[in-house]
């Protein structure tokens, strides 16, 4: 098996790959071309190429470990649900650091919390895990599918399913809807199985990665703050 049909030539990058951890597409809105010849490496003969949406560095650790044996990976950071810019940059920096350690390319469009607010408008009163989260999954996986199309890659998936707090059924539905819209394949993996979450905790500790205590959106942040307050009082 050779390169994916329609995949860009490696000639666009004299090194045949994006420098590890480099952010192709920086400064471009998600609707703009992401320079697939600069964002993907030359595929390894016989290995499928996969765009992996990264929700955070700790979750990415075990996901990459499981997927890298059989796939050429491009990491895709698109998390506009993290509305606090400082928190967003902290998490992105950790994802970049882990990508550099592994020699993997990382693509990060500009931070755009407005897109998340539009996608979740009218769902502010929803509980965590409800319809607001469904809309958030759809937004992020639609962007990942679009990235796969622009990179000339056939499949995409996400690290989101490694969390025990996230419904695989909902993630799968959002991924399959994005796949239908884009014409790309969604690799539906429940990464929390086979002790995936526990492995992510071990690897995050081993690499001393920042591990947040909430999903990222302002609503989950408030819930985390309330939990910490109750713990302090108790």
Strand proportion, as a percent range, falls in: 5-15%
Tell me the number of strands: 6
Helix content: 40-55%
Q: Ranges with pLDDT <50 over ≥5 residues?
A: 1-20, 22-33
Number of domains: 1
Shape verdict: globular
Q: Order of strands across the widest beta sheet?
A: 1-4-3-2-5-6
Ends distance: 60 Å
Radius of gyration: 17 Å
The CATH superfamily is identified as HUPs
Mean pLDDT: 84
Task: Please sum up the structure shown.
The protein has 234 residues and is an alpha/beta fold. The chain is 44% helix and 9% strand.
Structure report:
With 234 residues, the protein is an alpha/beta fold. The protein has one domain (10-233): Rossmann fold. Helices cover 44% and strands 9% of the residues. The chain has eight helices and six strands. The chain has helices at 36-39, 57-67, 85-102, 113-119, 131-151, 168-182, 196-206, 218-233; strands at 23-24, 49-53, 72-76, 106-107, 155-158, 185-186. A six-stranded parallel sheet has the order 1-4-3-2-5-6, sandwiched between helices. α2 runs parallel beside α3 (85-102) and α2 packs across α7. The longest helix is centred in the middle third of the chain and has 21 residues, at 131-151. The protein starts with 22 loop residues before the first strand and ends with a helix.
């Amino acid at each position: 098996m050779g390169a994916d049909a329609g995949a860009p030539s490696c000639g666009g990058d004299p090194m045949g790959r994006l420098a590890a951890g480099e952010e192709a597409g920086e400064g471009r809105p998600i609707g703009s071309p992401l320079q697939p010849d600069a964002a993907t490496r030359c595929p390894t003969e016989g290995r499928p190429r996969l765009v992996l949406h990264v929700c955070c560095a700790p979750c990415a650790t075990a996901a990459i470990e499981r997927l890298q044996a059989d796939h050429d990976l491009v990491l895709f950071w698109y998390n506009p649900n993290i509305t606090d810019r400082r928190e967003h940059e902290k998490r992105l920096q950790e994802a970049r650091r882990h990508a550099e350690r592994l020699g993997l390319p990382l693509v990060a469009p500009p931070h755009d919390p407005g897109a998340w607010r539009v996608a979740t408008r009218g769902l502010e009163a929803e509980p965590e895990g409800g319809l607001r989260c469904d809309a958030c999954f759809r937004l992020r996986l639609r962007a990942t599918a679009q990235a796969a199309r622009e990179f000339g890659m056939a499949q995409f998936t996400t690290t989101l399913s490694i969390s025990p707090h996230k419904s695989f059924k909902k993630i799968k539905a959002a991924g399959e809807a994005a796949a239908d819209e884009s014409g790309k394949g969604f690799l539906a993996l429940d990464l929390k199985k086979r002790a995936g979450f526990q492995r992510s905790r071990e690897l995050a500790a081993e690499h001393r990665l920042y591990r947040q205590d909430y999903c990222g959106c302002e609503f989950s942040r408030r819930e985390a703050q309330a939990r910490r307050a109750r713990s302090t009082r108790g």
